[in-house]
Q: What sequence folds into this?
């Protein structure tokens, strides 16, 4: 056999996957292109995945190659099944984008799994109608119709001799050369596509190798993270994420069932925890910032019982990672997962506290990023939620002040039930744990406060190193800090006449043009330098006590005052809360309670699971 003929045969072999599955290849490729363009967000600079055309060719060609290896009868059924799944995934993906401005994601899948027949009926009657055919969904339906007509026409062609006879028969040699040319083109495209797509495929492999949902989220923070550019990939990623979350939920449920409360003195009848968001400590006037961003907190510090803590750090600069470690009674550094320990609201509720969770972030919604899914899946699991909370709010708000109305409504409803505490005095109200979770200063900053309350403007900043746009962003951040001050103050005011202790602490810090660094947000993959640690991991924290609380618990107030200069990492917060409640349980570890005289001030504070913050600060001081 001549070399040219051998080469021709090789290329003819490479063409077979396309020729044997020509209709399937054409329609799946067209479907991928149509869907990709259908879900491009309507915002400036939004565009389809850069490598869409090449990588999609490679993906569909590989599928066709695998199909070509199957026996003919098996191939036909597998091909039909794959096409059906691809069309259904595409319809769901484009539908979600049209109705909710988001493609398939883990939360959407979770909501679908938890929907009963009644809710499903209400959903379809409300969201599915003939008008969908006038949207991008109609293009997917059209492709399905073309595919069906093509398939029917091919079936008819095989059964009608007249049609077969009317088709001219090409000489086998010409057919061979055409097949070889097709194979040559396919080989060239595959080499090109393989080189261009290798990076994304490696990142996909890395993503699907993650062992827990936290690792998935962390992987998504990398600049070259996987692009799940097709509905089937997004579906697979959503299923994978839900699987990882379900594993941790199972572990949390097991930990919940093992909770044991030995006793509870209800030392603090009313405990309020306010969790902020993306709060740069160095933009707080309470900590010396040169703009009046916290006038109300300063007034309370100067005239009331407020202790401001000076050395508190977050273990991560990701909300979900912080929340898991802030809610779990696990201590970072102990050789177990966060989900191996119970969540502190479960312990409070079992001890006899009435617990509320009022959040402006972690409510399950269709248009939800993986970050919110990762942070909220355990809070929104029905079994865990009912074990943690007696009451929750049910809607999100444009601004955090909306949570005040939620609290007022829930408190009024509870007051109407006339709940009293059998554990202490039958005539006294039941002890309360209330958790507020704010949107705080989460980007985009200009959306975090009402425009009518704007106080700072770009011209207020003597920062020639920053552009007009950067100073505008900076002013929006400071306005968000000022607005946060008003919301937090309004929360505290609701407890002034009660025997209450209020703790304020945000999840993590935020870059916002400090130290000459022209950046805002968070640098998830940068080396953790002292500067980055201060901006993104240092957090403000204070504890406010009402007059009646201090009058009855002067000893506790003195412990708070004595502790405010001790070093702390926020994963130990639950230990302090257990002490304030007077809860005795096997999960309480006194050495991690910052109010205890036996508190371990030398404990390593490992941030991002890599760097000891304490050593970082020591190195910084030595350099100075």
A:
């Amino acid at each position: 056999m001549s070399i040219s003929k051998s080469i021709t045969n090789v290329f003819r072999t490479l063409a077979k996957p396309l020729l044997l599955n020509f209709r399937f290849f054409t329609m799946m490729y067209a479907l991928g292109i149509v869907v990709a363009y259908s879900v491009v967000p309507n915002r400036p600079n939004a565009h389809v995945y850069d490598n869409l055309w090449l990588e999609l060719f490679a993906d569909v060609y590989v599928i066709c190659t695998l199909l070509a290896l199957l026996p003919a009868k098996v191939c036909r059924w597998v091909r039909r099944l794959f096409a059906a799944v691809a069309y259904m995934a595409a319809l769901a993906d484009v539908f979600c984008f049209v109705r909710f401005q988001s493609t398939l994601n883990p939360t959407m899948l979770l909501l679908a799994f938890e929907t009963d027949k009644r809710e499903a009926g209400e959903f379809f009657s409300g969201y599915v109608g003939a008008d969908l055919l006038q949207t991008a969904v109609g293009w997917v339906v059209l492709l399905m119709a073309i595919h069906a007509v093509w398939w029917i026409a091919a079936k008819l062609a095989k059964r009608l001799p007249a049609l077969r006879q009317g088709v001219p028969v090409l000489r086998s040699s010409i057919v061979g050369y055409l097949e070889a040319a097709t194979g040559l083109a396919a080989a060239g495209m595959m080499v090109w596509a393989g080189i261009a797509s290798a990076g994304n495929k490696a990142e996909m492999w890395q993503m699907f190798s993650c062992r827990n949902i936290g690792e998935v989220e962390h992987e998504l923070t990398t600049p070259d993270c996987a692009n799940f550019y097709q509905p089937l990939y997004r579906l697979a990623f959503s299923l994978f994420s839900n699987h990882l979350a379900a594993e941790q939920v199972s572990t949390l449920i097991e930990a919940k069932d093992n909770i044991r409360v030995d006793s509870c003195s209800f030392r603090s009848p009313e405990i309020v925890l306010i969790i902020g968001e993306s709060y740069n400590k160095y933009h707080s006037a309470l900590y010396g910032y040169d703009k009046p961003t916290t006038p109300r907190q300063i007034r309370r510090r100067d005239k009331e019982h407020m202790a401001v803590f000076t050395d508190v750090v977050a273990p991560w600069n990701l909300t979900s990672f912080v929340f898991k470690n802030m809610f779990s009674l696990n201590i970072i550094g102990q050789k177990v997962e966060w989900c191996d320990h119970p969540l502190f609201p479960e312990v409070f509720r079992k001890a006899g506290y009435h617990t509320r969770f009022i959040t402006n972030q972690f409510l399950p919604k269709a248009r939800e990023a993986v970050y919110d899914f990762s942070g909220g899946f355990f809070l929104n699991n029905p079994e865990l939620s009912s074990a943690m909370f007696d009451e929750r709010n049910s809607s999100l708000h444009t601004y955090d002040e909306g949570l005040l109305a939620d609290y007022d409504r829930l408190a009024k409803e509870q007051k109407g039930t006339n709940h009293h505490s059998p554990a202490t005095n039958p005539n006294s109200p039941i002890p309360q744990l209330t958790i507020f979770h704010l949107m705080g200063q989460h980007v985009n900053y200009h959306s975090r406060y009402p425009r009518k309350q704007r106080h700072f403007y770009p011209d207020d900043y003597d920062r020639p190193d920053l552009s007009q746009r950067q100073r505008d962003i900076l002013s929006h951040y400071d306005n968000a800090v000022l607005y946060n001050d008003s919301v937090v103050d309004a929360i505290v005011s609701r407890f002034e006449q009660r025997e209450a202790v209020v703790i304020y602490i945000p999840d993590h810090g935020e870059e916002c043009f400090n130290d000459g660094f022209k950046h805002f947000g968070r640098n998830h993959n940068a080396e953790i330098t002292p500067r980055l640690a201060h901006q993104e991991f240092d957090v403000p924290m204070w504890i406010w006590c009402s007059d009646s609380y201090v009058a009855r618990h002067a000893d506790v107030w003195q412990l708070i005052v004595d502790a405010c200069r001790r070093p702390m990492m926020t994963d130990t917060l639950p230990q302090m809360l257990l002490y304030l409640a007077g809860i005795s349980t096997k999960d309480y570890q006194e050495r991690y309670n910052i109010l205890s005289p036996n508190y371990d001030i030398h404990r390593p504070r490992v941030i991002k699971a890599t760097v000891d913050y304490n050593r970082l600060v020591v190195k910084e001081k030595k350099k100075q």
Remarks:
- The chain is about 55% helix and 10% strand.
